[in-house]
Amino acid sequence: xxxxxxxxxxxxxxxxxxxxxxxxxxxxxxxxxxxxxxxxxxxxxxxxxxxxxxxxxxxxxxxxxxxxxxxxxxxxxxxxxxxxxxxxxxxxxxxxxxxxxxxxxxxxxxxxxxxxxxxxxxxxxxxxxxxxxxxxxxxxxxxxxxxxxxxxxxxxxxxxxxxxxxxxxxxxxxxxxxxxxxxxxxxxxxxxxxxxxxxxxxxxxxxxxxxxxxxxxxxxxxxxxxxxxxxxxxxxxxxxxxxxxxxxxxxxxxxxxxxxxxxxxxxxxxxxxxxxxxxxxxxxxxxxxxxxxxxxxxxxxxxxxxxxxxxxxxxxxxxxxxxxxxxxxxxxxxxxxxxxxxxxxxxxxxxxxxxxxxxxxxxxxxxxxxxxx
Length: 373
Fold this sequence. Notes:
This protein is α/β, with parallel strands linked by helices. Helix content is 49%, strand content 13%. The chain has 14 helices and eleven strands. Helix 6 (191-197) links the parallel strand 6 and strand 7 (201-202). Helix 6 crosses helix 12 (312-332).
């Protein structure tokens, strides 16, 4: 019996096959979405929970968590939750913590060169320029070299340019360099050596221990960092004089640490999220610092704190003490000199550009807000 052909059947058959093929092709072309479980990382900061610095650490973690869309979650604990502040690097290296938030100068005891990321005048570079040197002028490779040499399997990110730190809090204002002689003073990093050279008796206490030590008379004076941190840590409750401007830590930044094995186990897309979260957090931190520090500066004045500009003679004495310190440390430690040489070469070029190009903003400020007549 002859088969009867149905009109349009070949066309329908072709279209059906084409549709099936399109669906199959579309399925192959669709982006692959990972169904991996959430990776949870436990961090600790080197800051008390109430300090704005711990807030900065949480700000970074939130940026990572939000961008990772549930695939990566960082929890940040305050200082002392797992280890003391100055033991953060060891804890991250060993895997006791998956990561942390602090400053490189806190690892000064491992290798004195580590304190060059923050301590001292950095050949006239401001903190943002120090970060430029780190990221584009060779500093990052040098830091990795030092960590490798001291057997620290960590991944380090530097970010967050800190405003110039005050000389500190004193029972009486500092009028000349000799006023520092014999003072029991708190600082950290290579600033310990600078103030020792200037005649002070230095105790490198972590942030949360400073005000209690001042209150009990264990130290006479101290520096920490900024108006917001100083206010919340309670400095104005025990001391009423603050000296502004100093070269002891005028170019410091924060450090975010990851345990090396934990970081390397992350897929590349999560590492990229961390990279960009660091950059975003760096900008956000610098903006928040302007907002909060300026407001807390007003509140400190309302609380009866008297602020004084550190005399130029004291600043010059700091520079002279710094020169003696780096000459001594450079002779003892080859990598210390290597870092200094790298900073100096970058600072000479970048500093000339910045100093020549940047206008004096004080002129405009005084034009609008200075006392008339």
